[in-house]
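Example (one chain per record):
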Amino acid sequence: MKKLLDRNRICITVALLALVFIASLPAFRSGIYQGHDLDFHLGRIQAIAQELQNGQFPVRYESEAWYGHGYVSTTFYGNIFLYIPALMYLAGLPVWRAYNIYVLLVNVATVLVGFYSFKGIYNSRKWSLIATTLYTLSGYRLSNLYVRTALGEYSAMIFVPLVAYGIYRIYGKKDDRHNNAIKLTMPLIIGATGLIESHILTTEIVAVFVLIFALINFKQTVKVIKELLIALFAVLGLNAFFLVPFISSYSAMKLYINSAMTQTSIQGDGLYLSQIFGLVTIGRGSNWPWSTDNEGFLNLGLLTVLCFVIIAITIIITLIKKDWIAKEHSKYKFKLAMTMFGFGLISAWISSVYFPWNLFAGEGTFDKLMSSVQYPWRYSMFQTFFFVVAAVYCLKLVGAKLSDRTDSKIVEFNLLRRIDKFSMVVLTFVGLVALATTAVFDYTLSYGNITVNYADAPADWADNLYLPDGTDRGLLENTDTTVDEESGRVTLPVLAYNNLHVYDESGNELEWAAGDNNCIETMYDGDANNITVKFVEPIGWRISEVISLLSLVAVIILYKSKRKAEV
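Predicted structure:
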């Protein structure tokens, strides 16, 4: 039995390594395919490295962005994981290689975290492996990795399964097994923290789905409210160092992201049915409003469509044969799976051109919250995840029924000796389909994109989301200091963000205001070349960092003390 278990582990390990290798093939190159957001994320990595060299920690402000005018994307965009490639860049690696290594690490984390999370949900290694394969090699995730190069979003995809498992673990708790609240809620705490520090938009969407789930299961929610509150306060404490600066800056500054951007409807960027059920995900293309032309990278792919078909067939069977789900325990799990399927259908609708996004184009708080997603098809991530969770449960249900009818017949297969025939067939089929769809994606990726190998990020890497509202990006190429001799007014080539302090050559602080093109204006009668601008963190931000550090220490101590008590 021990040898059998060891062989099973070896087989699973080899499969997971193969999954990482297949997902990472485009990263094993001497360069990077020019993805949509590549320049921006290379710039983020380089900016973090530069600011660390300048003594800024944690990094909140990119002083060299926009030709030296400065930028604040790190205040609004979780970047803790980007310190890894930033340190590689500081160690001498070109920024493109540091990025490729990060992609590889993300794939490793996605596979490992996914396998752990799905194993907790299904209580089975083989079904967890199937779910991990479907999720890791899904069309939307591959497009995020290599076409969109949406670093924040594909990093967040590491933690979505962990949050789902964390919720499942709390709602399915048993008093005789989980009497340690910190241990019970740890997957949710880590998962939510990972989401916040990766991609705030994904975090907001996940939070809405969790809230809806809690309301649907209100009776169970009341029973586990203590654990949910423990997780909530732990997450808020651990992430205070990011959330406090983010919220205070978002509410205090008028930027493109919270003003002009949300006034325009994003409905035209939604998906059509031909994309939602598109069988082939193409490794190239661009986004065009009210069109599917050259948008094959947004096709969700055969794996996700198969998940939908599996769920639909299972629902039809259960409607015809109502005795299929006889046990109360099975009924509860089937209800959970159908809830996930319902969430997937809602996600598909919201991601489409058929959702009334026009209603949310405006300056209201709810309008800004809805439209801040930028592109409706971001919800495709959740359609993919929810379909995978529900489909694998349906397959497991079918497998259990077939096993009952065949007296649990098994199949011998080299290293993995005891595995039921149905799951072996499913695993083989899913693996072959995943290989085929990934091969098509990689092929179209290779001939449809140019390869770049930047040693350093382009000078114009920054986007416009966090520019002060009304800023003319073209004028930012001018880096001259302008002096009005008559009035003594000096216009510095630095954008007027909050928490910037202006000093003269003697170290005296100068008052300033936003002037032409949202650049800093100050009154000074000396040599303007001696004026310096520094970013200074407010004391409240420093306090939030202390709170996060203390929260981390407290969580570790509580977790370890409870483990010792259990021993």
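Caption: The longest strand covers residues 489-495.
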